[in-house]
Write a structure and sequence with these properties.
The protein is α/β, with parallel strands linked by helices. It is built from nine helices and nine strands. It has a single domain, classed as P-loop containing nucleotide triphosphate hydrolases (Rossmann fold). Helix content is 37%, strand content 20%. The radius of gyration is 18 Å and the shape is globular. The structure holds adenosine-5'-triphosphate.
Length: 241
Amino acid sequence: MKAEAATDAVRLQGVEYRWNARDPFCLSIGEFEVSRGERLLLLGASGSGKSTLLSLLTGIALAQAGSLEVLGQRLDELSGSGRDRFRAEHFGIIFQMFNLLPYGVVIDNVLLPLSFAPERRARATAAGGTESEARRLLSALGLPADIGQQTAATLSVGQQQRVATARALIGSPEIIVADEPTSALDDDRQQDFLDLLFGQIDATKATLIMVSHDRRLARHFTRVVQLTDILATSKRESDKR
Ligand SMILES: Nc1ncnc2c1ncn2[C@@H]1O[C@H](COP(=O)(O)OP(=O)(O)OP(=O)(O)O)[C@@H](O)[C@H]1O
């Protein structure tokens, strides 16, 4: 479906999810909305369910109850392959472990999402060609000009993180999701990285949803939400007991 500009980026209501039926962990969200263009930081302790929530938002996991809409599209109305296409087209994802193809060269890693996302490919092509757009992003993220043909496995952690970020940004998806992308960096490099990321996001007006347990990042964002504050009331009460 066509994503309408008037809809929220993300809207959840009464969403429940367990990874498996016998697992005591259940993520249970009352209401949660993210407007388009927000830079949202979602804070929560380790194991509280932040990555699980990102898996639900991106359609990697499917909620067992409730309603979850992204850009006006209910994800449970899409088939598994439809959710995969929707994710590739509308989300740029920076994973906690980056998930680069280790034996692929940097340029191929950055271009990868375009194989599954015709609208993103068309935008990157219109911006001057897919390869030149990949190189522009790598350079804007502070990587040297000759890095494109290097294999991903030979990069430092900081370089891998920037390549993963270029891969998320290419073709200007509407929503950028980042799972603790700064956790491996010292304070100065965190600040550098966030400045570069925000600079690129400002240019495309994308929505940013970042999860972290590090509340010192809060000042960089337009809104900060504690995961415990969006849990369904019954779940919050049982956590207190
Ligand atoms: N792919 C998975 N399969 C099964 N269980 C999972 C999976 N991912 C997470 N879990 C479980 O879901 C619960 C919440 O984990 P999650 O990774 O969402 O928390 P988190 O807040 O992101 O933690 P961290 O900050 O340590 O990354 C944990 O009990 C975890 O073991």
